Amino acid sequence: MSRTLFEYLTFGAFIFLFAPLIVSIFKFISFNFLQKRLLLLILVTVLVEVISRILWYKQVNNLPVYHFYTVIEFLLIINVYRFELSKVFSKLFFIIISIGFVIFAIINTLFFQNLTTFNSNVTTLLGLIVIFFALSYFYALLKEVKYRTLESNPMFWINSGFLIYFSSNLILFYMNNTLFKGVTEASLILWGLHAIVNIVLTIFYTIALWVNPKKQNT
Predict the structure, then answer these.
(1) Residue-range definition of the domain harbouring residue 203
(2) Of all residues in the chain, what percent are helix, strand and coil, respectively (each to 5)?
């Protein structure tokens, strides 16, 4: 993959992030509790990507931003699953998972992967946990159908997007620091694919904000 194509893909993925925000302008008044939580996650993601791109254009290492973002992203995602899987896992379980993840992230930054290094250990753990919750949600969905049609269920689209995104990028997150040293053609290809998967996730976000659920989450 050429560097030009890679830059087009990453820029396209960045621009596409604004699609769910545009949908929110017209649909916010009808959002349920879950959709509002998703919107918060998207807003944080857009803010981080804006800051990251500004630093990148100024040739400043933007990896410290992602050390903090990974923790915030995890807590926001956990907050979504905490309500959707309240009948499967206890509140204490989510608290323990959240505290454990934050402690692991701090230890990883202090002793293993500092702020100027890609925090692959933490992003890998994040991916594994989200995949676990995504599969748990589908299992719970099979046992108790709360919606008459899945296509009108925002959580179905959110969960599907999470499962596709984190499953696709799990190996990349883990291998990034060890497999690639500097910018290589292989790294451009994989991070280009990552940008494509980002676009797919954003499409699922947009659908989740667009649909009108039959039931409202409280």
Answers:
(1) 3-210
(2) 80, 0, 20
